[in-house]
Structure to design on (378 residues):
C-alpha cells in the first residue's frame, strides 16, 4: 500500500515558555483509522515519538519518509492498537525536522530560524500537540502513549490536560532528567556545537552542515540506547578485515543513517528540552507533582535500560496515585527495548486501553448519576 503524505496544520502564533514567538506554528501529523464522530472523535489515541522519531508510527517507507513506521508491529489493523477500531494520531514534535516548525524551518523573514529558534521545553511541545488536537476537533484522547521523550510528554499531558486524557502509558522515561542523563546528552550537544560547521546554529545559510558533530552525538547516544551485554554478544572484540572493530563499524552505520535524515539544530533543540524536563518544576517538586496526577497510568521500563534505569520508572509508579504497579519489559536491547519488543509493548498498550475504557465508563456512569438520568448508587 502506498504511503500517504503527512498533513500539516497551521496553528497560529505560539509563545514558548522561555520567551520568543513562533508565528504561524506548523505541526506535521499523520492519522490512522476512522474517528467515530466526525467533529469530536471519541475513539482517538495519541502516540508520541522519541527524540529522533517522527509521526510515521506505522506503515512502509516512501517518498519523503526514509524509514518504516517505528511501531509498525504495535499499531495497525488487528494489532494491539487496532486501527480498525481506534483513531490514532501522531504528530512530529515541536522543534523537530519532519514538517513541524523547528530550527531548520523558515522564519517570517524567509530565512531558516537557525540560532533564532526559541528555546523550547517538553511542556511547550505538549501545548503544541494540544493545539493540534483542537484543530482536529479532539476534545479528549482515550489514551496518550509514549516512550523515552514521548513518555515525558505523556506525563505532561496528564498534568497539563488531565481532563483531556483517559489513561497514560509511560515507557522507559522519567519524572525529571538525572545528572547522568544531562551529562551524557550535554556531551552530545557539545559534539554538534563544537563542529566548525555549526556556525552558531546558522549553518543553513553557509551551505555546510555540522554532520560530523551530529554523527559523534549519535554514536554516544546509541551506546546508551543498547545494553553492554548485547554489544558484547553481537560484536565482542571482533574486527573487520581492515582492522576496524565491528562495534565501531556498527556505530558508524547508525551515525550515517541519522545524518542522512535528521537536522543537527533539531537534535540540539530537542535534547535541550529533554535536559530541562522536570515535572516538579513550578509544582512543588516531583513528589508533589506526581501525587497530583490523577489520570490512570501504566508505567513500564526495560530491565536492561542503562539510559533510563528501572529505578526512575519505579519512582513514577510509586508516586502516581492512579498508577498500576511497575511493569517490566524483559529485553537484551536496553533502552531500545520499548521499540524492539512489540509483543510485550503490545500487551502494555492493550492494558492501557482497557484501563482507559474502564475509567471512561466510570466517569460516564458518575455523570449520569449527577445529572439525574440514573439513580445514585447507595
Amino acid at each position: 500500500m502506498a504511503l500517504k503524505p503527512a498533513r500539516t496544520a497551521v496553528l497560529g502564533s505560539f509563545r514558548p515558555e522561555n520567551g520568543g514567538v513562533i508565528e504561524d506554528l506548523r505541526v506535521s501529523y499523520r492519522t490512522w483509522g476512522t474517528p467515530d464522530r466526525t467533529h469530536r472523535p471519541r475513539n482517538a489515541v495519541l502516540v508520541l515519538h522519541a527524540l529522533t522519531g517522527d509521526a510515521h508510527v506505522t506503515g512502509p517507507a516512501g517518498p519523503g519518509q526514509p524509514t518504516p513506521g517505528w511501531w509498525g508491529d504495535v499499531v495497525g489493523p488487528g494489532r494491539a492498537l487496532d486501527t480498525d477500531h481506534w483513531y490514532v494520531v501522531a504528530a512530529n514534535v515541536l522543534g523537530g525536522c519532519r514538517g513541524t516548525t523547528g530550527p531548520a524551518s523558515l522564519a517570517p523573514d524567509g530565512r531558516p530560524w537557525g540560532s533564532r529558534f526559541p528555546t523550547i521545553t517538553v511542556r511547550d511541545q505538549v501545548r503544541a500537540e494540544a493545539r493540534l488536537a483542537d484543530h482536529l476537533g479532539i476534545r479528549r484522547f482515550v489514551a496518550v502513549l509514549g516512550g523515552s521523550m514521548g513518555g515525558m510528554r505523556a506525563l505532561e499531558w496528564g498534568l497539563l490536560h488531565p481532563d483531556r486524557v483517559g489513561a497514560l502509558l509511560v515507557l522507559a522515561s522519567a519524572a525529571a532528567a538525572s545528572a547522568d542523563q544531562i551529562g551524557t546528552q550535554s556531551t552530545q550537544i557539545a559534539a554538534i556545537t563544537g563542529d566548525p560547521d555549526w556556525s552558531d546554529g546558522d549553518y543553513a545559510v553557509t551551505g555546510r552542515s555540522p554532520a560530523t558533530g551530529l554523527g559523534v552525538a549519535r554514536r554516544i547516544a546509541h551506546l546508551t540506547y543498547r545494553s553492554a551485554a548485547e554489544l558484547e554478544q553481537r560484536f565482542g572484540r571482533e574486527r573487520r578485515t581492515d582492522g576496524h572493530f565491528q562495534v565501531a563499524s556498527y556505530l558508524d552505520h547508525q551515525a550515517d543513517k541519522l545524518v542522512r535524515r535528521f537536522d543537527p539544530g533539531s537534535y540540539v533543540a530537542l535534547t535541550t528540552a529533554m535536559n530541562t524536563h522536570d515535572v516538579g518544576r513550578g509544582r512543588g517538586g516531583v513528589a508533589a507533582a506526581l501525587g497530583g496526577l490523577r489520570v490512570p497510568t501504566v508505567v513500564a521500563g526495560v530491565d536492561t535500560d542503562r539510559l533510563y534505569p528501572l529505578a526512575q520508572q519505579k519512582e513514577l509508579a510509586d508516586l502516581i496515585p492512579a498508577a498500576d504497579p511497575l511493569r517490566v519489559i524483559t529485553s537484551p536491547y536496553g533502552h531500545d527495548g520499548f521499540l524492539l519488543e512489540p509483543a510485550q509493548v503490545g500487551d502494555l498498550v492493550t492494558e492501557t486501553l482497557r484501563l482507559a475504557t474502564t475509567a471512561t465508563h466510570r466517569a460516564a456512569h458518575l455523570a449520569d448519576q449527577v445529572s439525574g438520568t440514573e439513580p445514585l448508587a447507595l
The chain has two domains: 7-178+279-371, 192-272.
